């Protein structure tokens, strides 16, 4: 008998009661229809529709396949993607998570070995496939398995990209074979660092072995390009829920019907980013390698978990595939006014493509990657990838509001308990990012297509502070600045004032182009001419002095400038010509103080201005030397005009 402090507890007397008073009723609600906890939990989830890429496959006897058979076909396709090229043909794959209460134990059937079975541990093992999971499921996967995953106060998924917090352009390689040797741009200035087929296969095998060794891998089957005639089917195989959610947001999401008809992908990414490559492998110079094999239609990622690598890798693919169809691929943002006027925003990273294409008064077509075909423009992607550093609700409300449930927030810092993000905090990196589906922007244009552009805006963030806030360009000048691809950012630093460094990146995206820059430039010139588009150069950088003495042009002013371009107002302004660069600048523009329109007025030290202007002019000239021997387009006159459109001094 139980006793406390030696006192024997009194026995509780239970009396015989009437039938209806025996059970103590907690409430009056109807009780759940479940006898056990498991049964109760099974009531929670409603059955989803089929989630398989193969539709209406008839079995050998003409009987429609069952859902189980369909899933088997889907898994066979995934198993084929994950197959080692040197051992058994494909791993045993199982759909669904092992911890799921009711695992969908559909297995891909294994090919029968006729010879002595090549049994390895990896052949005996099962790999669980998490196929096109929903954002909610991916949140659960990330939070359960990936350290550094948290739900922020606005509902976004905060993640860490690991050691790499930006792209690794010096580790991006392309297989040079008989075809690509002739087709692609190689050598000085080219982003295509060569590798051979054999080395690619070694890295591919490395990635596949790593992925198959995992308990589970994520597979996304999605689309690129909103132009239905030039849509590309991509499969992304990755190890992290973060990567799967990122691509879910960034690529075009198939409808359930489209997924049923998906079939074989046109291109596959193997993202084994957590696993490194190594210098014992030929061509490898670090533990990171991003390898593209156009013949195999594959990309392998080793040694970097930065998700932007996947999006920009696919962009490189489009820069190869689209020009083959006379379609111009563009590193630009794109939006459209109420009257159907389309604007393109070219610019290197940090110059304002995402910020300025996201405009509350216009329809967003896309923030970063587009195609310009004979039918108009189309976004390649299904989402946006915005920088978050110093993000403010007041200045960029649409981006702010897009950071909600479903959005991936990379490398941000948040308050431990409230999970309130501090967008000013650079502790992890300055390159903090948000990836969200384009429909999170209220005035997104779905489908993301539009007519031919009316304005082509070249953005440069000039930290030297000598380029005017806006200039109107003629076609030759547009081409000159497009091929130059100038910007000058200042690396974030705490220790003192640093000199700005000029960056020239052909076509405002040399890291992603596959052909020689003049190929894209010629296409742009032809399209702009044909459709009567006007070119503009907008400096979103410094005014009143270089970085350190001047200040960045207020976003509000840049927006006014952009508004005046869209409305056609700026086309009607009076213009004067600047010295050295020979740029046409407006004398007045509503909402912008007139004195800032000419940088010569804003510098307190006139000789310092002139000196800096000449210095930048010299850098432009030096950079353009390599293009002087190339012909641009069919017309030789244009080449001459472009060469003459640079700085003159
Ligand atoms: N005048 C300005 N115009 C455009 N962006 C500005 C301006 N001033 C500050 N910014 C900031 O510069 C960054 C531009 O980056 P972003 O739009 O992401 O460039 P991109 O998409 O071209 O890489 C944003 O963080 C934006 O808030
Ligand atoms: C995704 C990127 O694009 P951007 O900085 O132009 O937005 C990147 O450069 O990694
Ligand atoms: Ca970009
Ligand atoms: Mn951007």
From TrEMBL:
EC number, as in UniProt: 4.1.1.49
CDD domains in UniProt: PEPCK_ATP
Domain of life: Eukaryota
An individual GO BP term: gluconeogenesis
Annotated pathway: Carbohydrate biosynthesis; gluconeogenesis
Cellular localisation: Cytoplasm
Cited PROSITE patterns: PEPCK_ATP
GO (cellular component) term, any one: cytosol
Catalytic reaction list: oxaloacetate + ATP = phosphoenolpyruvate + ADP + CO2
Keywords: ATP-binding, Cytoplasm, Decarboxylase, Gluconeogenesis, Lyase, Nucleotide-binding
GO molecular function terms listed in the Swiss-Prot or TrEMBL record: ATP binding; kinase activity; phosphoenolpyruvate carboxykinase (ATP) activity
Sequence similarity: Belongs to the phosphoenolpyruvate carboxykinase (ATP) family.
NCBIfam families, A to Z: pckA, PRK09344.1-2, PRK09344.1-3
Full protein name: phosphoenolpyruvate carboxykinase (ATP)
């Amino acid at each position: 008998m139980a006793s406390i402090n030696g006192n024997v507890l009194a026995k509780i007397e239970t009396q015989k009661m009437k039938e209806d008073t025996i059970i103590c009723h907690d409430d009056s609600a109807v009780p759940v229809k479940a006898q056990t906890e498991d049964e109760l939990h099974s009531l929670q989830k409603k059955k989803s529709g089929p989630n398989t890429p193969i539709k209406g496959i008839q079995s050998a006897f003409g009987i429609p396949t069952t859902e189980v058979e369909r899933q088997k076909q889907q898994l066979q396709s995934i198993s084929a993607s994950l197959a080692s090229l040197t051992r058994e043909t494909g791993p045993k794959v199982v759909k669904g998570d092992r911890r799921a209460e009711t695992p969908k134990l559909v297995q891909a059937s294994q090919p029968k070995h006729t010879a002595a079975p090549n049994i390895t541990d990896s052949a005996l093992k099962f790999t669980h496939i998490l196929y096109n999971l929903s954002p909610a499921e991916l949140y659960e996967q990330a939070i359960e398995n990936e350290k550094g995953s948290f739900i922020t106060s606005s509902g976004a998924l905060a993640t860490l990209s690991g050691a790499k917090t930006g792209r690794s352009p010096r580790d991006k390689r392309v297989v040079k074979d008989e075809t690509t040797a002739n087709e692609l741009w190689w050598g000085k200035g080219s982003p295509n660092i060569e590798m051979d087929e054999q080395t690619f296969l070694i890295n591919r095998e490395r990635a596949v072995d790593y992925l198959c060794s995992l308990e589970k891998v994520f597979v996304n089957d999605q689309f690129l390009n909103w132009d239905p005639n030039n849509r590309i089917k991509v499969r992304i195989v990755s190890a992290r829920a973060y990567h799967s959610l990122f691509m879910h947001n960034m690529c075009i999401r198939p409808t359930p019907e489209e997924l049923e008809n998906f079939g074989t992908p046109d291109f596959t990414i193997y993202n084994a980013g957590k696993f490194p490559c190594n210098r014992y492998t030929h061509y490898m110079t670090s533990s990171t390698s991003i390898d593209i094999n156009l013949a195999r239609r594959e990309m392998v990622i080793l040694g970097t978990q930065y998700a932007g690598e996947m999006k920009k890798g696919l962009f490189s693919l489009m820069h190869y595939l689209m020009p083959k169809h006379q379609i111009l691929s563009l590193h630009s943002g794109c939006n459209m006014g109420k009257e159907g006027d389309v604007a393109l925003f070219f610019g290197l990273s940090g110059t304002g493509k995402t910020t300025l294409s996201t405009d509350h008064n216009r329809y967003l077509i896309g923030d970063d990657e587009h195609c310009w075909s004979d039918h108009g423009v189309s976004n390649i992607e299904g989402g946006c990838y915005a920088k978050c550093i110093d993000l403010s609700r007041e200045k960029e409300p649409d981006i702010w509001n897009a950071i909600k449930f479903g959005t991936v927030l990379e490398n941000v810092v948040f308050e431990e308990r409230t999970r309130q993000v501090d967008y000013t905090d650079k502790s992890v990196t300055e390159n903090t990012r948000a990836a969200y589906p384009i429909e999170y922007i209220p005035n997104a244009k779905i489908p993301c297509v539009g007519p031919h552009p009316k304005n082509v805006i070249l953005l440069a963030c000039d930290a030297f502070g000598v380029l005017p806030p806006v200039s109107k360009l003629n076609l030759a000048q547009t081409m000159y600045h497009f091929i130059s691809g100038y910007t000058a950012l200042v690396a974030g630093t705490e220790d003192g004032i640093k000199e700005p460094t000029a960056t020239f990146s052909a076509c405002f995206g040399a890291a992603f182009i596959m052909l020689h820059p003049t190929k894209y430039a010629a296409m742009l010139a032809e399209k702009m001419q044909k459709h009567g588009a006007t070119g503009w150069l907008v400096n979103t950088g410094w005014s009143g002095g270089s970085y350190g003495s001047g200040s960045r042009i207020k976003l509000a002013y840049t927006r006014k400038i952009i508004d005046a371009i869209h409305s056609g107002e700026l086309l009607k302004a009076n213009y004067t010509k600047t010295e050295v660069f020979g740029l046409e600048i407006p004398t007045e523009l509503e909402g912008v103080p007139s004195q800032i329109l000419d940088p010569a007025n804003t510098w307190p030290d006139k000789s310092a201005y002139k000196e800096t202007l000449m210095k930048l002019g010299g850098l432009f000239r030096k950079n353009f030397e390599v293009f002087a021997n190339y012909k641009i387009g069919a017309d030789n006159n244009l080449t001459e005009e472009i060469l003459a459109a640079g700085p003159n001094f």
